[in-house]
Amino acid sequence: MARSGKTNKMLAKRIKITSTGKILKRSPGQNHFNAKDSGNKGRAKHGDKHAPYELTDKSKALIFN
Fold it and tell me: All domains of the chain, ordered by start, with CATH?
């Protein structure tokens, strides 16, 4: 019986993989000190961003090993 690897929980909590295989990540710096930001800057922090293409294979390898 082949031994399967474990999912990297740190990475799994920070990214989302869509049904088509794209990786979405949270934009940095949106957890605190949001009251002083302007409206545009505050809205830009929210919502997921596409992860860089170079990280997709590495991220999938850590999650689906």
Answer: 9-63 (4.10.410.60)
